[in-house]
Write a structure and sequence with these properties.
10 strands, alpha/beta, globular, Rossmann fold, single chain
């Protein structure tokens, strides 16, 4: 038991609260996520999922409580400082450089992780380690045939795949994905689930997702957020069977996810 109690978690939230004026959005969240787990955060609109994501990634500072990354407190740090400690995040809105090629986008993400800082004294084409790592990433996210295509000319699904590549390019151990399959067709979604599983092997994944098919197909555990509180944190099977979760949120969505049609 003592070994479990002393274990350092990839992400740990302790008594986390966030208020905007007199309105409390996150109300005392406690959550411990083990390294290597894939966690989905679900809940109705306005439940506080995005706020929770923003607190973890440093876009917002908590009103009270703590956020720990691999045992180190990160609440109050700026996003780039948290990123350098090993946490990377994508956004609902695709966030890439549209006028750069696939290769150039991914190389931007690689450079810092290899120790290259802002300098104009080197020709990027001579950075063999960065270029080799970039080529690996291109293949990893399935964009080998689009290597030299400008990001603006990619399909939506390809742009999302590129963003996933940029997100993992820095070598972060903890990956946050904000609705990664939003706006995709069923076929694209199935392909993207497989891609996410592939590129996050050995990493900790935390995702906000509305598509229950994606959630139950991807997550090891599900955290259900309702009115700023985590009302359940368990395996997909246990969440499906949880009466409180069904009453508060899932309802027919669970049945749809279990059915062949969804």
């Amino acid at each position: 038991m003592s070994a479990v109690q002393n274990k350092t978690h990839a992400i740990e939230l302790k008594g986390l609260r966030k208020s905007f004026g007199k309105t409390e959005i996150i109300r005392g969240v406690d959550l411990a996520i083990e390294a290597g787990d894939r966690i989905a955060i679900i809940g109705p609109n306005g439940a506080g999922k995005s706020t929770l994501f923003n607190l973890i990634s440093g876009r917002l500072a908590p009103t009270s409580g703590e956020v720990l990354l691999n045992g180190k407190r990160i609440d109050g740090m700026r996003p780039f400082e948290i990123n350098r400690l090993g946490l990377s995040r994508s956004f609902q809105i695709t966030n890439i450089f549209p006028k750069l090629s696939v290769f150039e986008n991914l190389r931007c993400g690689v450079l810092w992780s290899l120790g290259y800082r802002y300098t104009f004294l080197r020709f990027l084409s001579n950075l063999d380690d960065a270029n080799a790592r970039t080529e690996e990433l291109i293949q990893q996210v399935g964009l080998g045939k689009k290597r030299d295509v400008l990001a603006v000319n990619l399909t939506y699904a390809e742009q999302r795949a590129l963003e996933i590549g940029v997100t993992i390019a820095g070598g972060a151990d903890v990956i946050l994905l904000d609705e990664p399959t939003a706006g995709m067709s069923k076929t694209e979604t199935q392909h993207f689930i497989a891609l996410i599983k592939q590129v996050t092997v050995g990493k900790t994944l935390l995702t906000v997702e509305h598509d229950m098919g994606v959630v139950f197909g991807l997550a090891d555990k599900i955290a259900v957020v309702v009115y700023g509180e985590v009302i359940a944190f368990d395996t997909p099977a246990a969440v499906r069977a949880n009466p409180r979760v069904q009453e508060a949120y899932l309802g027919s969505a669970v049945a749809d996810a279990q059915g062949a049609g969804h």
